[in-house]
Amino acid sequence: MNLIEAIKAVPDHRHPRGIRHPLWLILAIILLGSCTGYWGYKPLAEFTKNHRSTLIKLFNLPSDIRFPCDSTFRNIILSLDFEVIAVLFNIWAGETLSIAPGELMAIDGKSIKSTSVGGNSSYQNFVSLVSAYSHDRGWVVRHKVMENQERSEIEVVEELVQQLAGSQVVITADALHLQKKTVQLIIDGGNDYIITLKKNQSSLLKVAQKLVESVGAIDTVQTSERLHGRTT
Q: Does domain 83-202 have CATH number 1.10.10?
């Protein structure tokens, strides 16, 4: 499955009457525009003007095509089912993006701007993308969508860890994911891990601190810097 085939598999729930542009074309433009810095509805419309001839040639479109306007981009983005897109992305990424043994793979969740509701109350909710990101290649190889009120990031990360089983990678994560089950899933999947240790695992932190203090330094380095008339 190439990327366009994956995009074409996204269901189009629009009413047939009045459809001027196929959904796959709109999504492809959103993807290309976003990747080149055209963030927002009006910038995406500007992207089609600035790169009109390239888009026509790339997608074999009629020379007199009228590209979507900013309101069309807005309506499509607001109506998208990101769960479906995440599934299709993972299928495409699994078939297309290779993972080399020994790669550093960062797993983390990031909330999506403007999805937060409920302020700082117990009703707070937001949508997050939890991704597995290759340090070396600079691309996302797997991701999942979650709502804060429905699922925990720990649970979603465990699912991504299982998807990476057998990849022989080194998974990096923040202190939230220093959990017995998560670590065991990483080991069972034949991968290694580097996970931050903080006070959320206080007993383990104390043991680690004592271990570090009991071992002499293997090597040391000292640097100095002069800034604003001071040497530090």
A: no
Q: Are 131 and 143 in contact, with CB atoms under 8 Å apart?
A: yes
Please state the rounded mean pLDDT for residues 57-77: 96
Q: How many residues does the chain have?
A: 232
3-class DSSP state of 61: coil
* Residue 155 CA: distances (Å) to CA of 108, 111, 133, 160: 12, 16, 18, 9
* Cα(162)–Cα(157) distance, integer angstroms: 9
Strand, coil or helix: what is 129? Answer: strand
- In this structure, what token pair is assigned to residue 86? 């995440």
Q: Does the pLDDT of residue 80 top 70, yes or no? A: yes
Instruction: Measure the CA–CA gap between 22 and 100, rounded to whole angstroms.
Output: 36
**Which amino acid is located at 85 in the chain?**
I
Q: Which residues contact 170 (CB under 8 A, 6 or more apart)?
A: 102, 103, 104, 105, 191, 192, 193, 194
Closest by Cα among 80, 175, 167, 179 to 132? 167
What average pLDDT does this structure show over 135-154?
A: 92
The backbone region for 138, taken as left when phi is positive above 0, alpha when psi lies in -120 to 50, beta otherwise, is left
